[in-house]
Structure formats: C-alpha cells, structure tokens
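lol forgot to send this yesterday, sorry. struct tokens for the thing we talked abt
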C-alpha cells in the first residue's frame, strides 16, 4: 500500500534516491496497512504531546532538609512494590496499602525515604507486626526502620494511606471519562510521567530504580480495571466492587505503573511471536468507539512484528500488549498497556504514527528506561524516529525521507540532553534527527546492529546517554564524541552555502569543483558527511565529502559531464538552511577563480608541470628548470632541458702529444657529440671539427696535433633523444647561440 504524502516538500527537486545499504532490515511477510494522512504538522504533534514539563516546575526544588533525606534513597535498591488500592470515583479517593521490598546497599541502613505528596494521609507504617516511626512532610515519607540493615539484607515495609490525589491530569490521576465533556461519565486513569507516581502512591519516584510490581486494583464492579502485565484473576469485593489482580513479568520504573478503569468494551487480536508462539493484543475502549477501534488498531500486530524484527523480540512477550482508552488528547506508553486518547480512535489510520510511537516505547522507555530525566531523549527521540521507520517500512526510502522532513525545524530550543522542557519538540523531533543522522554517519546496517545490542544490553534496566554512545561506538568502529558533542549536548545546527562548477579536464575526465561554507552565527562548525548527487546524462551519482570547516573546497571527478548538483539531496543533515551561491570564473573555463591556477587564461585541464601553483597556461617555465619554455627543447621535463656541456671532461696528454679525453655519463643522454675548436693566442676560434657524432662511449683519443703556437679545446654535448635528437645547443651563459658542427 502507499502512504499519502505532502504535496510540497521543504527542499527542491530530487534527482535520484540514495542507494546506500542503510534501509531498515527487511521484514519479510509483514502485512501492509493503509496510512491515510499526510504526515502530521508540528502543531498537530505538539498538541498531542506531553509538553512544557520540568522537574522543578511541579513540586519545586528540594530544600536542604529534603535533599538530605533524598540522599537516603541512594542507599537502597527497591526490588518490589505490592499495590493494593481501592479507587472510589464518587469521592475521588485512593486508599489502601503499598508494600515496599528493599535491599540495603550500605552498612547500617535505617532510613527508608519514599516520595508521597503531603495531601495523601498516612495511617500506619509497619514491618511485619512492628509499627514503625515516620514523618511525612515536604512531600517525603521518612520511615525509621526498627533495625539497621547491611548490604544485601532485604526488608518489607507496608504503608497504609489514603486521600484525594493531586489530580493535575498530567503527572497524576484523573476521574473524568471524556475530555471535551468532563462531567459526562466517570473513570479513573493515571499518567505519572515524569514524577507523578508520588501523587497517588508512595514510592522511590525516580527512573533509575526499577522494581517488579504487583497491582491489585479495586473498582466498581461494573468497571473493568486494566493494568500492567498479565491479569491473574478477579475477586468480588464488598460494596459492589471487584478487584483486578495484575502481575507484570518484568520490572518497571514507577512512572509506568498505571490503571485505566471504567465501563469498557474489549477485543483481542494476536501477535505471532518470532519464536512461533502467540501473544494477545487486547484493547479496551469505550463501547461507542468499539467499531472504530477495530479498524484504527488493526495495524498493531504488524507493527509489533516489524519492531521485533528490527530491534529484537517484543520485550514483554510473556505478558501482552494493548491499549486502553482514556480522556487525554494524546497517549502514554504504560508498560504492556498504552493509555490512548479516545478522540484519536477515528475508524481510520490518521493516528497510526501515535500507535507506532507508543508501541516502540515498549522497547525504548519501558524495557530500556532512562537512567536520569536528562536522558529522556532516549525515550522520546527514539520513539519519534521509530515513527519514521514504520513509514519507511510502508512506503520505502521516499516515505522515510518525507517523514523525517515532517520532523524538521530550522531551530530547536536548547540541547537534546537535559533540556529545559523535558517533553518539547527538541527532545522528540531533534532527538529523532539525531538517530537519523547517526544512521548516516554509521552507514546504515551498523546503526541497527548498535541499536539491537544497546537494547539487549540494557533490557529490563536503564541507560544513560553515555552508555548509548558507547554501544553505538562498538559498531561504528571509532569514537563518536564529535557527533554527540555537536548534536546531543550542543545546540543549534549548521547553515550551509555551496557553489559548484564543472570543467572538462581532458582524456575523458570531468572535474566538478565544489565549495561548501558553514555560515551559522549561533554555533561553531559541525562535522558531517555531506552526500552530493552529481547528475549526468547517464543518471545520478552520489559522492560523499566531509564538511568540518567554515570554508572548504572539494574536487570530484567523473567520466561524464555533470549537468546538475544536489546538496544533501536525501536530507541526512539537520541543517538550518542551505543556499546555492555563484562561483566566479573569469576565464569561463569551468574552474572557479579561487581554484584556478591560471584564472586569466582558459585552462580547464589545470596542468601545472612543476607544481608551483601557476598553471602551464600562465607559467613561462613550465618544468621549473630555470629555462624559459621558448628556449627549452623539453619544456615539460626538467630532467631533459637543454643538452649542455659536460663539465667533467678530462683531457689527458703532454704538450705536443695526442690527447686522451674522458667524460662522465649523464642520465638522459643516449649518445654524445664531441666537438673540437682551435685556440690561437688568447682567442678561441669557432668549433671546427665534429670529432665523434653520437658516440656511445665516454672517452676518445684525439691523434691530431695542433699547429705551432695553437691548441685545441673540446666540448662534449649530451645527445638527448627527448629533445628531438639533439638540435641546437640552446643559448649559452652569455645569451649567444651555441652552434655545433655535429649533425
């Protein structure tokens, strides 16, 4: 099936799709589903997200006394919670008990400090039959244990309490069934992220201490209460109530513990596991939305299988997956039981991206949870990227690219790590772009290998950003500090300018000159691979250059003339902008002036024989041998030049006796011309004789004797075939021509 796409894209015409081996691993046999809409706008996304939340903003920063108490939480590992709670919609109260099992991490541990808002009244705290002393103020429950515990020793503490929770709607508990008409119908639902579990039950309310959980929810007997894990049974209770007993198989972090209870209708689909088994996919919806839900939710099993094939088996395959309708305009990834806004159940697939997002959280957020809240982008950025992966599965590389384009922004506020707004678009959308770019940096398949290993290595546990980086580096084969420093811990994004020209370099070679500038003023330079698509008559060819400076030049060679160039055509870089600029070319030879070794004369071949930076077209001495080209019989070879005198000629013989001549061979000579001239007084005469043309020997015996009061002088000239078989001797040191009698 196809996905409807936007009619216009952020960038211009595309030449050809990038043929990198970095598509999502094939998921053979997956059912294809219809995906109705254009991808959602930023405004639509943000309206359905948990946004504008800071940890300090809701409960305030702890004072010194509270901080001292919170330090005790570091000394204990909470291993289990047993929640036995009665939810009373008529009074909007929660009452019951929570039993906490903990293991000491230090010697002499004696203070168990739990988070619980002060408006929830504590009636007793016990360990077995022993009542324990406690104080409850500043939203902290400080319990003094009846004995100290050493490392490895465990204990159980039962807290009985009740009250009307702080019903803030996000980060707490709600009793309305309908968002647009809150007085119509009742239910109870919770959404505790990031630290709202403390509003309705006592716990160590931080993400790094996961524990197993047992949930006993008591509600009106006409209601169905959903929870995490597997429903182990129901028990009738007095007062027309029923208790639902849920038992998750895997440990949870506190913000994922949830209840959604009202008069529900339900239906079950099945997911065929990778091992060949079957897992129920059970959804609970308002009865008037049942028919719509059967259609809107029918892609869920295929989504589960897709993510299982991509990252590893569904984390809670022993339990279940499903969604429970609730009156919030968005969704929340409660472990095994996503809370899903009823208004999104339209009977179509407009909001499949939300289903995909919350489902992928089961891997990234629920199974692998953030070590700290500054690491929350590992939840939300990863899940947002998984939306794009689902689009890629349905509609290939173009669908993927279009989806990432819908997540783009020219500016994101703050860094991805430790943002001011825990759930703003920087965390969701820029976080998704971090994954997108990291996939490109790692060249595709190694990225997915790293994701699978990261998930497997932190399943049922927590992960920090640095631990995620380390896992990816194992598959990248090198450090990624530069990437994380710029894109995760840093802010802003690059703004590019680029220009290009193409020249015919001769011999079937064409050179494209590419200039890339980074012109952003709100950040330093970024390091990224830039894919450049070169269009020729034969098609598109992708070349990759690394942009890591403010102004760089690249030369790309092809065997066909380049008729078009696309910069980062497939949008692998989260760039603020890009603009094409003109490159000056005064001689119109296709070589930009800034790169041209002879910008005043056309020389597209850019030949520079002596490498002095001045091209042959402008250089009077191409080979740099000190002889101008006009006088050089081999102007392109400094080792040939003008065949000169052999300075090492030795003449041996007594006056009035025949001369014996010896000279040293030269590297370029294939023969030697020996000439003789006559001395008379102090004057030299012309060369009179060619004694030996093209001698291959390096010696000669001259049996002639000069006339009285005269003498002979000799010249040996290397005869260089590279200079056309000899020819004129060229100019002497005085500038006068040397003429040899040898042919």
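and heres what i got for the seq, position by position
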């Amino acid at each position: 099936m196809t996905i409807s796409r936007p009619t216009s894209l952020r960038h211009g015409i595309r030449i050809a799709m990038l043929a990198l081996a970095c598509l999502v691993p094939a998921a053979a046999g997956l059912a294809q589903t219809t995906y109705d809409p254009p991808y959602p706008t930023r405004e639509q996304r943000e309206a359905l997200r948990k946004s504008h939340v800071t940890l300090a903003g809701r409960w305030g920063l702890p004072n010194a006394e509270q901080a001292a108490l919170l330090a005790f939480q570091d000394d204990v590992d909470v291993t289990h919670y047993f929640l036995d709670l009665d939810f009373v919609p008529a009074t909007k109260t929660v009452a019951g008990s929570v039993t906490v099992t903990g293991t000491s991490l230090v010697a002499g541990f004696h203070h168990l400090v739990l988070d619980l808002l002060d408006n929830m009244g504590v009636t007793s705290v016990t360990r077995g039959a022993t009542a324990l002393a406690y104080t409850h103020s500043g939203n902290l429950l400080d319990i003094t244990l009846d004995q100290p515990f050493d490392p490895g020793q465990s204990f159980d503490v039962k807290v009985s309490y009740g009250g009307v929770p702080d019903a803030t709607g996000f980060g707490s508990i709600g009793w309305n069934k309908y968002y647009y008409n809150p007085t119509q119908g009742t239910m109870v639902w919770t959404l505790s992220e990031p630290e709202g579990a403390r509003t309705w039950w006592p716990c160590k309310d931080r993400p790094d201490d996961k524990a197993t959980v047992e949930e006993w929810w008591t509600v009106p007997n006409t209601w169905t209460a959903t929870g995490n894990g597997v429903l182990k049974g129901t028990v009738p209770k007095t007062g027309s109530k029923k208790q639902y007993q849920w038992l998750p198989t895997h440990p949870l972090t506190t913000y994922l513990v949830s209840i959604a209870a009202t008069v529900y209708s339900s239906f079950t689909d099945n997911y065929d596991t990778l091992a060949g088994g079957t897992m129920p996919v059970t959804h609970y919806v308002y009865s008037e939305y049942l028919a719509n839900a059967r259609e809107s939710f029918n892609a869920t099993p295929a989504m589960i299988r897709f993510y299982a094939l991509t990252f590893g088996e569904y984390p809670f395959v022993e339990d279940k997956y499903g969604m429970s309708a609730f009156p919030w305009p968005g969704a929340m990834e409660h472990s095994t039981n996503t809370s899903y806004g009823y208004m999104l159940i339209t009977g179509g697939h407009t909001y499949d991206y939300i289903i995909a997002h919350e489902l992928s959280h089961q891997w990234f957020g629920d199974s692998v949870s953030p070590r700290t809240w500054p690491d929350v982008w590992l939840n939300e950025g990863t899940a947002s990227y998984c939306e794009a992966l689902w689009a890629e599965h349905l509609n290939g590389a173009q669908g993927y690219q279009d989806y990432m384009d819908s997540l783009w922004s020219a500016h994101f506020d703050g860094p991805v790590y430790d943002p001011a707004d825990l759930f703003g678009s920087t965390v969701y959308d820029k976080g998704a772009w971090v994954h997108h770019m990291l996939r490109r940096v790692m060249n595709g398949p190694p990225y997915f290998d790293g994701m699978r290993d990261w998930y497997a290595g932190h399943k049922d546990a927590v992960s920090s950003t640095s631990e995620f980086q380390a896992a990816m580096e194992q598959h990248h084969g090198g450090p990624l500090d530069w990437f994380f420093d710029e894109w995760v811990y840093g802010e802003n994004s690059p703004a590019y300018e680029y220009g290009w020209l193409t020249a015919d370099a001769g011999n079937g070679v064409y050179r494209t000159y590419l200039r890339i500038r980074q012109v952003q003023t709100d950040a330093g330079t970024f390091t990224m691979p830039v894919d450049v698509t070169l269009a020729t008559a034969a098609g598109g060819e992708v070349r990759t250059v690394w942009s890591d400076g403010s102004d760089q030049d690249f030369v790309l060679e092809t065997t066909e003339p380049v008729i078009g160039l696309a910069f980062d055509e497939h949008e692998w870089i989260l760039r603020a902008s890009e603009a094409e600029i003109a490159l000056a070319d005064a001689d119109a030879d296709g070589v930009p002036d800034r790169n041209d070794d002879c910008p005043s004369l056309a020389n597209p071949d850019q030949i520079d024989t002596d490498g002095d930076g001045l091209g042959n077209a402008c250089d009077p001495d191409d080979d740099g041998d000190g002889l101008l080209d006009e006088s050089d019989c081999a102007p392109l070879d400094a080792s040939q030049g003008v065949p000169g005198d052999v300075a090492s000629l030795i003449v041996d013989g007594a006056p009035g006796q025949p001369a014996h001549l010896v000279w040293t061979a030269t590297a370029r000579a294939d023969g030697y011309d020996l000439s003789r001239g006559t001395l008379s007084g102090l004057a030299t005469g012309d060369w009179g004789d060619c004694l030996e043309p093209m001698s291959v020997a390096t010696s000669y015996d001259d049996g002639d004797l000069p006339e009285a009061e005269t003498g002979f002088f000799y010249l040996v000239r290397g005869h260089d075939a590279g200079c056309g078989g000899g020819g004129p001797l060229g100019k002497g040191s005085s500038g006068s021509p040397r003429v040899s009698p040898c042919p």
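The longest helix spans residues 377-406. anyway ping me if u want another try
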